[in-house]
Amino acid sequence: MRQAFNIAVVLLLGYLMADRALMRAQAGEVGTITCHQGAELVKAKALRKGFGEAGASSQGENFLSSCLVTGRGKVADLIARD
């Protein structure tokens, strides 16, 4: 049982490292922006929808937090990467 757990942990770490390397390789492609740029777009979109400054800022910060933790986010047709 312990060996199966160790194998599962190694496979998970391998997957996460490969995913992160692939994200880094794709970061320079057309249609990608940084997480900070994505947060600004989310904030601007919220302001256009009628949210107040505090609500729009909160949505932008939420997007930024999520993007920085996961390494990616999506704003309309653009992909934001860390």
Report on the structure:
Helix content is 70%, strand content 13%. A hairpin with a 2-residue loop joins strand 2 (72-75) and strand 3 (78-81). The chain has a three-stranded mixed beta sheet, with helices on both faces. It is elongated, with a radius of gyration of 17 Å. The chain is α+β, with helices and mostly antiparallel strands. It has helices at 2-26, 35-48, 53-70; strands at 32-34, 72-75, 78-81. The longest helix has 25 residues, at 2-26.
The spatial strand order of the largest sheet comes to: 1-3-2
State mean pLDDT (0 to 100 scale): 86
Shape type: elongated
Indicate the structural class. Answer: alpha+beta
The tally of helices reads 3
Question: Secondary-structure element order, as H and E?
Answer: HEHHEE
Radius of gyration, CA atoms, in whole angstroms: 17 Å
> Low-confidence runs (pLDDT<50, min 5 residues)?
none
Summarize this structure briefly:
With 82 residues, the protein is α+β, with helices and mostly antiparallel strands. Helices cover 70% and strands 13% of the residues. The longest helix is centred in the first third of the chain and has 25 residues, at 2-26.
Structure characteristics:
alpha+beta; 3-stranded mixed β-sheet; single chain; elongated; 82 residues
